[in-house]
Amino acid sequence: MEAIYLYDGTFEGFLTTVFQVFEEKQYKAKIVKPKHYQPDMFVNTSDVVTDMSKAKRVWRSLNLKATKMGANQLRKAFLSEIKGIENVLLRYIIYAYSTESFINIDYSNKDVLRVSQIAQMVGREKHRMEAFVRFKLTKDGYYFAEIEPDFNIIPLIEKHFKDRYADQEWVIYDRKRKYGIHYDLNSVQTVVFENTSYQSAEDVNLLDESEVPYQKLWKDYFDSTNIESRKNMKLHKQHVPKRYWKHLSEKQPS
Amino acid sequence: MSFDRINEKLNILADAAKYDVSCASSGSDRKNKNKGLGNASKMGICHSYTQDGRCVSLLKILLTNHCIFDCAYCVTRKSNDVQRAAFKVQEVVDLTINFYRRNYIEGLFLSSGIFKSADYTMERLVAVAKKLREEENFNGYIHLKSIPGASDELMYEAGLYADRLSVNIEIPTKKGLKLLAPDKKREDFLKPMNKVKNEIVKYTNEKKVLKSTPVYAPAGQSTQMIVGASGESDKDIMYASNFFYKNYKLKRVYYSGYVPISNDSRLPSLGSPVPMLRENRLYQTDWLLRFYGFGVQELLNEQHPNLDIAIDPKLSWALRNLNHFPINVNTADKHLLARVPGLGMQSVYKIVQARKFRSLNWDHLKKIGVALNRARYFLICNSKDYEKRDLTVEQIRSQILQNTSSKYQGYYNNQLSLFN
Q1: Distance of residue B43 Cα from the nearest chain A Cα, in angstroms
Q2: N or C: more exposed end of chain B, with fewer CB within 10 A?
Q3: What keywords were assigned to this record (chain B) (predicted)?
Q4: Could you give phi then psi for residue B129, rounded to 5 degrees?
Q5: pLDDT tens, B344-362?
Q6: Does residue B150 sit in the same domain as residue B59?
Q7: Which residue(s) pair with A179 in the sheet?
Q8: Gyration radius from chain A CA atoms
């Protein structure tokens, strides 16, 4: 009988599930988030309780078995949140443990290629977000940015921003997933705002008085770097897809 | 500070700086020191893109557009009737820091018109960089222009604060330079470039012995050449590039299609199109030299002084050298694979890894991302279905052209008809 594992949607939860799949030898199992699950009376479902120590064991082992690069690709692909990605990852992992050689470079295997391609997509958006985050200085003296990425890339960009903006307090908030990260000059913490208390950076009353003038300087700078006789909007949109424009101050109408 | 006044200056001085195409912020991995502001990203980050599709990575401005020179191709030339402005050192520092803190930019690219003298100008540029590093504890990227003719002492100091230094050659031939920029001598360009090269070599050697040696221009040097302003051939341009890559260890040479800015009879007239496709072919050639193991004389020589506009330079080379093909994708050395049209270095890497596991066929190659419309004439793989006919160069060429679409198509079809 087909087995289904329901997990909490976190990466640790997924790793715990992998542990359980191997323990119970349910290699044909499906791993699903509750929100993607449609009850079916003919299958055997089990709820997985996330266990940090099991997750850690699996993660360490994956780093050895699939190499560090392979393990990082698995994590990135997981953060894509693509429906059904858990099962691609599971097949990849089963394949990794079934052979002697490192497999993360076997691009002729469809799961390996798929994981590497999705990881690449997620990696691209991570890189984009490192570029497209636009901080706004608030009255309280911290820098605030809102993003709406396709993939859940906040865990991937945390280090970049912490290393770079070490001397200013900042918050990056994912409006789609309704959580963010806050750097308080010492460490980075996850923050979740209640819907009622959340004030968007679009509210000008929250901003420092120098904020709007600097946005204008930046937009004017952006406009004056353009060479009209070389205009190429197709290329422009390829580099800065429209879905990101909303939070880019230089792309706002004047 | 008055935002309106700054805004006015910024518009003038950013507009004048935009013809410098380099906006690279890569190649340096300067770390954030003592919980200061910023660091450099080894791979560089483009924070935005202009409507013409160029990367915006740095705050790229001139300190001033006052200039004592009168180079015909330059928008800030002495005789040009444009609005002039100048930034104060502190104004550039404030703009840089405030843009950087908002994650607009990777750092500063500061250039300048030459006012009073080369050294006087260079000194101001160095002063900005020094202030950013020492007073603001800024560790982001700084690109300074080396002013032709600047003294060795100033160039030395510039490298201590900047990540990259560049001096633009602009015109690849001596003859062209004499015609369009009579005030400038080639030696003046080479002098600062040579000083910086020697210091980089010295610092790199010292670093091997003593790890605490400070960094000196970690992202190296670059230059730029204008394409289509002085009637030069592609061979003139690429041989000059090759010379600079070899002798001055440059990180990059940029090619900038000439944007007509004046009615000077020595130059293409206003309204003539920017040679964007030619620029693109030159960049492709540059890449073949730097990453694909090609020698410049293989791609451009006495018989072929100009690149084929309709097809890329690698395909063009392959069609002239059909005797090297087809090669077997499952056994060929990676240097040979890199020479196959339609295979980029990414694909070469993936092929070399993937063929360890199984013999590859067309389907595998397609999934890996090989451009089979070009590659299939030059490859055999684990399949009986390969190109068996003995096609002539012309047949392959026209078949490939038929099966590709390019946004430039109208452009080169027109150009071709000129010769027919």
Answers
A1: 10
A2: C
A3: Iron, Iron-sulfur, Metal-binding, S-adenosyl-L-methionine
A4: -60, -40
A5: 999 999 999 989 888 999 9
A6: yes
A7: A174
A8: 22
- A62-76, B189-203, B379-393: range with lowest mean pLDDT: B379-393
Looking only at the bridges linking them, the beta strands covering B252-257 and B379-380 are unpaired
d(CA B303, CA B243): 20
Residues from chain A contacting residue B97 (CB–CB below 8 Å):
none
Q: Check B357 against A109: CB less than 8 A apart.
A: yes
Interface residue B272 vs chain A (CB under 8 A): no
Residue of B286, B244, B49 whose CA lies nearest to A250: B49
The tokens for A160 are 């970049």
Of the candidate ranges A6-10, A173-177, B3-7, B260-264, the one whose mean pLDDT is the lowest: B260-264
CA separation for the pair A247, A176 (Å, rounded): 13
Range 170-209 of B in CB contact (< 8 A) with A: none
Mean pLDDT of A83-103: 89
Supply the pLDDT for residue B6. 94
| 3 state SS of B416 | helix
| pLDDT tens-digit map of A146-200 | 999 999 999 999 999 999 999 999 999 999 999 999 999 999 999 988 765 666 6
Out of B10, B17, B360, the one facing A220 most closely (by C-beta) is: B10
Instruction: Give the total number of structural domains in chain B.
Output: 2
Does the beta-carbon distance from B51 to A231 stay under 8 Å? yes
Pairing assessment for the beta strands A143-147 and B141-145 based on DSSP bridges: unpaired
CB B70 within 8 A of CB B79: yes
Q: A246-254 contacts: CB < 8 A, separation 24 or more?
A: A246/A148, A247/A132, A247/A134, A247/A145, A247/A146, A247/A147, A247/A148, A248/A132, A248/A134, A248/B48, A249/A134, A249/A215, A249/A218, A249/A219, A250/A218, A250/A219, A250/A222, A250/A223, A250/B48, A250/B104, A252/A219, A254/A219
Using alpha carbons only, give the angle B330, B333, B335 rounded to the nearest 5 degrees.
130
Farthest CA pair distance, chain A: 66
Supply the CATH number for residue B82's domain.
3.20.20
Residue ranges of A 155-174 with Cβ closer than 8 A to chain B: 160, 163-168
Tell me the C-alpha distance between B406 and B373, whole Å. 13
The mean-pLDDT minimum among B27-36, B105-114, B115-124 falls in B27-36
- Per-domain residue ranges of chain A: 3-125, 133-251
Are residues B43 and B124 both part of a single domain?
A: yes
Tell me whether residues B50 and A224 touch, CB distance under 8 A: no
Tokens representing residue A53 in the block: 């120590």
Which residue, chain included where needed, has tokens 């160069």? Answer: B393
Chain B residues inside the 8 Å CB shell of A127: 45
User: CB–CB of A160/A154 below 8 Å?
Assistant: no
Residue partners of A88: CB distance under 8 A and separation at least 6: A77, A111, A114, A115, A118
Mark which of B245, B274, B303 sits at the end of a domain: B274
